[in-house]
Amino acid sequence: MDRAPWTNRQLRSLGHAIRDGHDAAAHDPTYDEVVTYFNGLALDAQYALDSLDWEPLLHGRIPEITSRPKTIDTLRQKLHRDRNTPLQNVQDIAGVRFEAEMSLDEQDGVALAIAGLFSQEPASAIHDIRSTPHSGYRAVHIWLKLPSRVEVQVRTHLQGMWANMYESAADTLGREIRYANVPSDPRQRELVAQLQELSGSIADIENERNILDQRDRELA
To answer: How many separate helices (H) and strands (E) can be counted in the chain?
Structure first.
């Protein structure tokens, strides 16, 4: 896909309009134009990932690869939280999700393969948030610098199941629980704490499983 037909200055201006709830300037792109462009980027990345042979890494396990645009409400919330981040620097306007039944080592291998597929430097492109989870969220993200930014989220099935549960809780309890803000209601606060503890338990299970897989490979 070609580069976007607007400047960073125009994107920054649109971001301010979205963040502050006013109409975009006449010379700026609309949100629909921007999200259509970024959705195209995400689809291109998804198709590239779909075409890759994952058999050597996943041994017959089929990954689920999807893409999605960021909604304007979610984008507005993000711009509110990070008021100094211009729209053109929001990493996940275009987002791709790669989820599979895999070990932590296999997850690392997938992340490296994705960075290599798009000729990205792993040290700067791969962001591992498993050991330092965000409110319990664990995954490996790859930040691709294509004509514009695209984020690929790589998650194991357990990481994905937890993320979906927490997202459902956020829809009910408030999306701010995703950013370390706990509800004032004691019962809701306890539920959030239990979900975050569950994330830690899943991490322990995955770490132990990874150790066992490493031992099996050494014995093979």
So the answer is: 8, 5
Q: Whole-angstrom Cα distance, residue 182 to residue 189?
A: 6
Closest of 137, 25, 125, 35 to residue 76, by C-alpha = 35
Looking at residue 117, its amino acid is L
Determine if residue 180 is left, alpha or beta; phi over 0 gives left, psi from -120 to 50 gives alpha, anything else beta. left
User: Helix, strand, coil: what percent of the chain each, to 5?
Assistant: 55, 15, 30
174 sits in the region (left: phi over 0; alpha: psi -120 to 50; else beta) called: left
Residue 188 is predicted with a pLDDT of 95
pLDDT band per the 50, 70, 90 thresholds, residue 1: low
Nearest to 137 by CA among 115, 165, 114: 165
SS3 196: helix
pLDDT digits (tens, 9 = 90+) for 31-55: 889 989 999 999 999 999 999 999 9
| Strands (DSSP E) found in the chain | 64-69, 94-100, 126-128, 140-145, 149-156
Return the axis-axis angle of helices 31-51 and 72-81, rounded to nearest 10°.
Answer: 100
Kindly report, residue by residue over 52-78, the tens digit of the pLDDT: 999 999 999 999 999 987 788 888 888
